[in-house]
Design brief:
single chain, 499 residues, 2 domains, 17 helices
Length: 499
């Protein structure tokens, strides 16, 4: 997504630069545009680089724990690096390291080169421990201990984000409600107080473009402060496309709100759009819900099979896992049938995580496969895998708790925004009635329609942020319906009260 933003900015600034060159003989604007161009690209590049480092830091504890278990299984060092990093953003870096080693570069040198290229103290410390483990033959348990320390560091970062999230949530609601209110008063009564009159077009542009952009910027800054999550619950392949369609349809709905319709018709229009969104995101929602259940049930299932005898193979383990009626048991039955049909262990386990598209299930499947190949006690390793899942599930819950305050603040904003804007609009209308020609009647006439459109935009931005922060993009429909319908109904009721 960051690459798309950079491309759009480059094209926009290039067009602006060429236009300024053609129209400005002195070249002053041309020079300013070039400076803006360079600064914008530098800012986007730094932001992209910081996000990449934060993602690498978030993945490092899980990578190190997986790597430590693989070392205990006597998996070769370089192969363990490749396996431990699979499925994450760090995969590209560790694959590059493994390729360099296979081409003749020493392991310490290849790892040190990667550490030198990053500005993260966490990554440098982790790589230093990996180099030490390679040179001194450290056990996997020592690597796992380092991973536990990094988890504690992430927990501290999440707690530190709690105060920031409350601040940004409050700041967003203030700018979303208070700033438009002051502008509404200024646009309608400014002619009387300051002898300035704002036209209908300017009012629409500032209210429905400028304010939403400022709101989006605040949410973007808050998102940049948020600790990244290693938990990925993916929906359909068209997930990103569906998000684009969501915003396109939301923009159309906001335009519909500008038409002179009564509030009942607007709520019906919103309800129709919500039904359309439900159809659009249905597959994503069902897939996310199913994967969420599988990952929640997985630790208990692994603990159940961890006490099996050492001589039990993969097939016997899946026989035990298949006992039950939950989602993971149903998937285990499918894998068991494949194994009994003489499908190789590697292909059966690969199909298990591929058909479920689960980041955690992929980790478990690959660890089971390498335990089987190394001749290790697979059932014993199940206990270690379950402990890993429980540890990171605790980290997930802490992150969700940190986001809860901001989430509820944004949802409450859907009730606060129409309350403040409606009362302000009514108050300004009463003041204008006493000022006769001094009030801006043109703005007052379209204000209710503009406020309705603004509520839709607020709901869309808030719903997108909450669903993205929680890692469950299909929930965007739920939050949008909740805030949009509540906002419009509240606006309708309050409009009747103040009429």
């Amino acid at each position: 997504m960051n690459n798309n933003i950079l491309t759009i900015l480059q094209k926009f600034l290039s067009i602006a630069n060429s236009k300024n060159s053609a129209t400005n003989n002195l070249g002053l604007l041309d020079g300013k545009t070039q400076v803006l161009n360079r600064k914008t690209f530098a800012f986007c590049y730094m932001s992209n680089s910081k996000n990449r480092i934060r993602n690498l830091e978030a993945e490092m504890p899980l990578v190190l724990r997986t790597f430590g278990m693989l070392l205990d299984m006597k998996v070769p060092f370089v192969r363990a690096l490749r396996i431990a990093a699979r499925g994450g953003e760090i995969e590209k870096e560790f694959t590059k390291i493994a390729d360099e080693v296979e081409n003749g570069t020493g392991v310490p040198k290849a790892l040190a080169k990667f550490a030198e290229q990053t500005e993260s103290a966490v990554i440098k410390k982790s790589i230093a421990q990996l180099i030490s483990a390679y040179e001194h033959g450290a056990r996997g348990t020592e690597i796992i201990q380092i991973a536990d320390d990094l988890v504690s560091l992430q927990q501290y970062g999440i707690r530190d984000f709690v105060s920031k999230s409350s601040f940004f949530g409050l700041l967003f609601v203030i700018f979303a409600a208070v700033a438009p209110t002051f502008f509404l008063v200024f646009a309608t009564a400014g002619k009387f107080a300051l002898e300035m009159e704002i036209g209908k077009e300017i009012f629409l542009l500032i209210f429905l473009v400028l304010f939403p952009l400022v709101n989006a910027l605040i949410l973007a800054i808050s998102d940049a402060q948020m600790p990244p999550s290693i938990f990925r619950i993916s929906g359909s392949k068209n997930e990103r496309k569906n998000i684009y369609i969501f915003f396109a349809i939301t923009a159309v709905l906001a335009l519909i709100m500008l038409i002179d319709l009564n509030q009942i018709m607007r709520i019906i229009a919103l309800g129709t759009i919500v039904l359309l969104f439900c159809v659009l995101f249905r597959k994503d929602f069902e897939e996310e819900s199913r994967i969420e259940k599988i990952e929640a049930e997985l630790p208990n299932v692994l603990l159940n099979v961890s006490g099996l005898p050492k001589n039990y193979g993969i097939e016997k383990i899946f026989e035990k896992m298949a006992v039950g009626k939950n989602e993971i048991c149903a998937e285990a039955k499918k894998t068991l049938m494949q194994l009994r049909a003489n499908v190789s262990v590697e292909n059966a386990l690969a199909d298990l995580w591929k058909r479920n598209n689960s980041f955690m299930l992929r980790r478990i499947s690959e660890l089971m496969l390498n335990s089987h190949i190394a001749g290790a006690n697979v059932s014993e390793k199940m206990h270690e895998m379950a402990e890993d899942l429980l540890k990171f599930d605790e980290l997930r819950r802490e992150r969700e708790n940190a986001l809860s305050m901001q989430k509820y603040t944004l949802i409450m904003g859907a009730f606060i925004v129409p309350l403040i804007l409606t009362s302000s609009c009514s108050l300004v209308a009463q003041i204008s009635s006493f000022m006769d020609s001094a009030g801006n009647n043109e703005v007052l006439e379209i204000a209710p329609n503009v406020i309705s459109a603004y509520i839709i935009i607020y709901s869309a931005l808030s719903a997108f942020y909450i669903s993205k922060a929680s890692g469950k993009n299909s929930r965007i429909v739920y939050y949008f319906a909740l805030m949009g319908i509540a906002g419009l109904i509240g606006f309708y009721i309050l409009s009747q009260q103040f009429a």
